[in-house]
Structure formats: C-alpha cells, structure tokens
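Input for the complex:
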Amino acid sequence: MNGAQALVKCLEAEKVKYVFGYSGVAICPFYDAVYHSNLKTVLIRTEQNAAHAASGMARLTGKAAVCAVTSGPGATNLITGIATAFADSIPMICITGQVNSELIGSDVFQEADITGAVESFVKYSYLVKDPDDVPRIVKEAFYIANSGRPGPVLIDFPSDVQNAELKKAFDYPDDVKLRTYKPTVKGNTLQIKKVIKELEKARKPLICAGGGVHLCNAVPELMEFVNEYKVPVVSTMMGIGVLPTEHPLYFGMVGNNGSPAANRAMREADMIIMLGARVADRAVNQPEVLTENTVLVHIDVDPAEIGKNAGATIPIVGDAKHILKDMNEYEVDTDTDEWIKELEGYRRDLKVLRPEHPGYVDPALFVRKLSEKLEDTAVYVADVGQNQIWSCRNHIVRKGRFLTSGGMGTMGYSIPAAMGAKLASPDRQVVAVCGDGSFQMSMMELATIMQYNVDVKIIVMRNNYLGMVRQYEHFSLKDRYMMVDIGTLPKLDDIASAYGMGYVLIKDMTDVSKKIDQVLKSKGACLCECLVDPMDLV
Amino acid sequence: MKRIFSVLVENRSGVLWRVAGLFSRRGFNISSLAVGETDDPERSLMTILSKGNDRTLEQIEKQLNKKIDVIKVKTFDESKAVCRELMLIKVKYNKGNRREIMETCEVMGAEIVDMSETLMMIQICDTPEKIQLMISMLAQVSVVEVARTGTLALQKCLED
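Predicted:
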C-alpha cells in the first residue's frame, strides 16, 4: 500500500462519501487510489469552488467534507475557499498535491508553499513526509477540523510520498494523541449557576444566537430553553435558522443590515446571552455600548472570542449544546411577559419600508414568496451582495437551513455551496440565490451541476450592477459609480441553453407565483432570472 | 504595558514561524524573542517580550493557546521573573581609549573574549537594562557589530 492508498483508506474510515476537486499531475496518485475505492468524486470547474462545495456539504452533515486539488495554482486557487470556511468555522479537510519532496523549495513547475500561504486561514496544516504518518495525520486532521471551534485543516502531500510504500502495516488509529489540543466543550458549573441567577433577576433578557449554535447542532436544546424559560431570541447572520423565522420568540437578525426590531431588542435588553456568536463588527458595531448597562453573558467554545470585542460579565467557555443542556436542568422563574409584549410591538411597528419598483421584480417580496413555496426542510443558499441582505431579511426558515458566506463575504459562494448541500441531502430542496455579479463568479459550475445531475435551482437577481457597492457609492460617494456597472451581458437564457438547463424569466411581479412554481417544479437544475430595478436599495 | 510570554512548544519544523506569524497577522508587538530546546528535546521554550494594553495582552495569551503546536503558555511581569540577556559587542579601539574600555568592562562585569590590534569583542550576560546601559557606555567608542540573544526569562522560584 502506498501513501495515497493509505489516505483513501483513512477517508473511507472517516465515512467520507464525496471528494470535490480538480486533478493535476501532483495529485494523480491520490485520485488513482480513489479510482479503486467507493469514494465519489466531483470534478469542479475551478478549485475555489471545490472548497465552497465541501463547505456546503459540511454545513449540512455537520462533519468535515473533503476537497483535493493539485499543487501550485490548484492549491493557491483553493485559498479563498479555505479562508471562507475558516471565517465561518466550517470543518473541512483540504488535500493538496505537492511536488516531489526533494524538489520542495527549488521553485520547480507548479510548486507553491501552500502550508505557508494558508497558515492564517487554517486551524492546522500538515506536510506529509513519511507515508507511515498518513493514518495518524488524517485521524488528527479530522479530529482538529471537527472538534472545538471547527475549521479547515490542510494536508499537503508530495507526490513521491503519495507513491511511496508504507513500511508498517496500515492501521487507522481509534483515537488521537494530541497533548496540546483539548477543547473545552462543557461549561463551568459555577458560571452556569451565575447565569441562572442573573436570568431570574433580569427583566429583559435576550439571546443573541450565532453560527456556533448550528455548528454544534444545539438547535433542539435552544428550542427547549426558549420555550421553557420564555427568553426571546435574535440572531446574527450565521445564526439565521436557529429558531424558525416565525417562532413567536424570534425577533430577527441583528446588525447593520438586520431588522430594526432585533437591533432595538439589543439596545433595550438588560441581559444579553451571546450564544456561539463572535460579537463581530457587522452584528454589533458598538460593543462598548452593549456592555454598559447590560449583563453580558458570552458563551463560546473558543476562549479567544470571549473578551476579544466586548468584555463579558459572565464568560463561559464551552459549546452551546452542552451549556444549554446543563441550563435546561435548572428550574428558573423568569418573568418576561411584558418584555415579550414590548418586543412584539417593535416587530409590528418597526419595519424596513421599501419604496415600490413597478415594472420590476421586488426582491423582498420575491424572497418571501419563494420561501412560502419552498418545502419546510429546504436549504436556501444566499450569495453575497444585495441579494444576501434581501434574503436574510425576507427568507422564512421553517425546518430548513439558511447558508451564506458571513464572515468573509465571498462572492460566488452560493452555487458551489448549494451543489455540496444538495449532494449531502439529496432529499431536500436546494436553492441558490445570487446576484448577476456573484452568479458570474461561479457560472462555470453550471457545467458541473449538469454533468453530475445535481438538482439545484439557481435564482439570479439581475440588476446589471454590483448592487451593494453601487449602493455604497450612492450614499457615500455622491453617485460616482465606478467599477460597478457590469452591463447587460451575458444573456442568461442563452447561458442556460448552452448548458442544457431549464430557464425561467421573471420580469415583474405580475405572475411571480406561477413562475416560482415553474422553477421549483422543473425537472433537474433550473436557472431563474429575476429583473430587479438597477436603482433598488436594500 | 510590558509582559513576558513563556511559551512551551512542540520542537518541530514550522513552529517558530507559526507563532511569529500569529504576532504579525494580529498586529501584536514583539519586543524580543528567544527560542531554544528544553531538557526534553521534543519541546522548545520560546520567550517572547511584548507590550500592549490589557485586552491585547489577554488576546496574545488566548491566541497562543489556540495554536495546536503550543503546549503551555505562561505569562508574567518582569518583576516576577529573572531576566537575562547575552550580548556580544565588537568595538574598534586605540591606545587612547583601551584602558577606559577595559575599566568599563570591569565595572559592568563584562568580559573581553577576543581581540586583534584594532578590534575587541566584549561579552556581557546580564539583565536587559544592564545590556542597554553597556551599549550606551560603549556608544562613545566606535561600535562595529552587536549580537544579542533577546531576553530569556523564567518566573522566580518563589512564585512557582
């Protein structure tokens, strides 16, 4: 058995089903080993999207997904995808082929120092020097990627080591021996008791839930906590879907682009529990205000996040699932009826008012309509730009998921991520919603979608502008529009037909309902173009 | 505020770079950095002197702890530690100032470890303040080259 075959055996032991990637000479031994295995491969059209597809898959399965590309440009193309996953704490194993060990450092053809280049975007990285290390390295890599605060781990694998025979018998270890890495997942009991005590005193408690709740699958525990103690919830962008959007105690997304009711709730609350949320700039732009008159509880599995942006009154290191489970054991008398009534008032009265745009599709109304028609468990993948904000504000999550690139804001995320999500759960409906800018960043993946027969519906909100930046230039640069006009090409109906996929055009709101049905009921992948007013604002 | 971070790490390739990279990536300051193997050849100890406000210093410790190659981070003030630095300094001398340089060395507890007809190499091992003082004392002579180890520090015995 050689190193590459050992790696494939390890992936099988980790129950990996798919490898997303792109070939090249330096990764050929690996893919040759995959040839003799049961792993399924997806040949993506550019490496960045291999990482995004793995990210979409990982977010649905809750386990690290795998991408594998060749050395040099293959590896460097992957970096944006890795950074995107890192920013949102998505578990991922990235395998890169590397030139022969003895050539490393001599700038030969397609050599890049990838472990060096990705250092600040990965949880850890390995350069394999001995094929006998493969089982230990892969075991560690999966453990590191999946545990604690999840994140990408990169394994750089020189092709001679891939081809070298193992000297020892292959043995995949049952557990890891890492003396330096032992993430704390269970919260400190004394700290939890303090939270319970404060919760009894609080008149206006509020949970601000982030992506961490999804990452440790704490949705059921949160639901129990909220229903039991009647504590209202708001979420960050990454936290969307921790409660169904129409749950009576959910009050929307916080932040610059959030709902006014949610932001008002954050300002009025006398106790805020940040639950698996970073207190990042987009969600909380003045963290010092947050801590002034509020009891701030910060729960995060990564101790470095606590106190980084806001000083917490009660810090608890641990994951949301364990801590909520422990908190659910207590009997707490909360009295939040009045507070909830107040918040219901905000939800009713504070609305983002949008002017009408006759003759165009209203993206907000469209997203509402689309959500209504989606199946309960549907996966909605929003891209980056105005489409993302319209999606965040208007999509109604029931039992489904809402995925987007939150931390990095990587355009082009939605199509490959939707593909990964669909392959992870073929039974769920999956839609990708993007703008005409982000669509063109991943348009090449239509070929992959058709080749592998992946049934995702792609909605393109077309306004012929990079709308989010145009909007910024409108407000901040007195309408000096630079580098935002992307013109009216390509014709998307031609694109759809070139790739052999279905196409639906929605010009305005007149028969939007029927058209959405047409998209959702179409057989296989479908491209839906919505004409949005170029001057529309979020 | 100044602070010493005594960082026990796995002794393998790339670790120094990962730790140093963390400081530059997050804009943390490094006043001095010294690394060496410990009694266990599988571990190295990095002594890093940094400064910043309380929040930065706390972040440095937490971010160091996140690194998978980091075994243990201890942090303490200079006052709670014994700090030493070794310096080799090469100076040009002449008949006129030879005596004076030798007197300075004697007063400062420094040693002349090598010399030629025009050059003299002086070794001093002392606290970082004394090293600084030695440099300023010799500044009036013509200094040719200076090599310093950076601060090494261990917490005082009583504190342990």
